[in-house]
Structures are given as C-alpha cells and as structure tokens.
Amino acid sequence: MMDCMIYLQHSLQLFLTYTGLIQLTFAKMYYLLQPFRVLWKIWFFLFFVSTLILLYPLLNWALSKAERWPKAFKIMQVWAWWLISVPGIWMKIEQKESLPKAPFIICPNHSSYLDIITMYRTFKGYFIFMGKMELNNWPLFHIFFSKGMNISVDRGSISGAHNAYERSKDELDLGHNIVIFPEGTIPPNAPMLKIFKNGAFKLAMEKNVPIVPVTFMTNIQRLQAGPALKRMGGPGPSRVIIHPALYPADYAETGVNQLRNDTFAIIEKPLKELYGDNR
Fold it and tell me: Smallest Cα–Cα separation from 191: which of 154, 153, 241, 150?
C-alpha cells in the first residue's frame, strides 16, 4: 500500500512537472511568434489602406447618390473578399437556421476591427451599419459614413441620437437590414462582452422586426484591437455563428430588457465554451 502511494505521488509530480513545461513552452512560443504577428498586422494595414486608395474614386461615385448605394454594397462585398483572402483569412460560418424575411436587425459582438469586414462576407443581402460619429473623422474610411449610406450616431447629443434613431426606423420601413453592435465599441477585455445598450432592442420592439444575434468567435485572434506589439494577429479561420432570430412578439410581456438579456446570453454562450469564463 505504501509503495502504491509513493508511486502515485511520484506520478503526480511528473505530471505537474510535464504540464508546467508545456505551459512554459507555449508561453515561449507566443513571444517567439510575436514579431511575425506584428509583421502580419503591418502587412494587413498596408493592404487595407492601399486597396482603399485604389477603390476610393469608385466608392466615392457609388456612395454619392442613394440610388447607387446597392452598387456600393456590392463593391464592398468584393473588396471584403480580397481583404480577408489575400492575408490568409477564410470564413467558417455556422448558421443555425434560415434567416427571417427582411428587414431585421443584426446584433453581433464586437471584438476586432475585422468584424466590419467579415460582416460583408457573412450576409449576402443588403444591410447598413449604425456606427459612432467619430468614424466620420477617420481618414479615407469616413467616406462610408459621411456620404450617408450608413448611419452615424452622435452619442454626445440627444438630438443627434434621436435623428439616428429616426433614420434607422426609416431604413427598416424601406426593408433594409441594419447592423448594430450593441456593445457600442470594442471592449478592452474582449472577447468578454460589454453590457449591451438598449437601442437595438428598443428599435426592434417598436418596429416589430426580428433580432438576429451573431457571435464572432475568432476575429480577435485574427486581428485583436490594441497595440500591435502586444496583441494577437495572423492568418487563420474567421469563425462566425448566426443564431436563430428572436421575435418581438415573444417579448410582448417581458419587454426590451428581456430581449436584450436573451440576446446577450445567446452571443456569450459559445464564447464561454471556447475561451472559458475568465476570457
């Protein structure tokens, strides 16, 4: 019996030592590969900017009149394909069930700058973004919001937020789908979710349109926001889960808060399964 106990103790020590070595090896590998991640991020940024400059005249033409916005959307879909394919990213989309009839509101988590690009590869039908007013100040990129196709929200102005909300209702009346990131920004501790804002869910209830929750699973691994020298980045799959739609009629009694909470839980569940509770 004593020999058995000694053997088990020795085996446990060996296991812990081996596990520690593996963890140390992975930690060293992470730092050894970091220069390559930085180079890949620089390459991605340069490729993004150079292709945007090349497409700028065409995009400016397509975005300058509302009747040409569907053409601009198609251009952006093709551009998005090049932006992810050339740097070595490929889409892995899991769709739980058929999408509802348009219009509907798409609610994804926001963990990477790549989310906006991959959205154009995730949904084929026409949609517009609702984004923060600060995007109008970004060099070159501002064209996607300043031309009026997508909706800018001035969160520091009551009238500005109201105007954006009214514009969103008009777009839904036209049958256009809207993408709203309910977190409002990329959380600093992503992929952990930030508390959702009520806007998208209030809009869904008022206009009686479905919410389609979307989970971006690995975009943070492909292009993590933050300092290039410290954050993750590199080629690989962009995994996306399109969840079943949630319908306002099912929340007639429980209201906006329950719709928001259910959307949060649906988006968060696969993130917990992949990254754990301490994301």
Answer: 241
Burial per residue of 168-206, b for 16 or more beta-carbon CB atoms within 10 angstroms, e otherwise: beebbeeebbbbbbbbbebbeebbbbbebeebbbbbbbe
Looking at residue 96, the DSSP 8-state letter turns out to be S
DSSP strand pairing (89-95 vs 105-108): unpaired
How far from 59 is each of 52, 86, 136, 230, CA to CA, in Å?
Answer: 9, 20, 16, 34
Tens-digit pLDDT profile for residues 144-177: 888 889 999 887 788 888 999 999 999 999 999 9
Using DSSP bridges, classify how beta strands 236-242 and 151-153 pair: parallel, antiparallel or unpaired: unpaired
State the Rg of the chain over Cα.
Answer: 22
Listed as own residue / partner, the contacts of 62-67 with beta carbons closer than 8 Å and 24 or more positions apart are 63/143, 63/144, 63/147, 63/148, 63/149, 64/147, 66/148, 66/149
Q: How many residues does the chain have?
A: 279
Tell me the C-alpha distance between 266 and 235, whole Å.
Answer: 27
pTM, 2 dp: 0.86
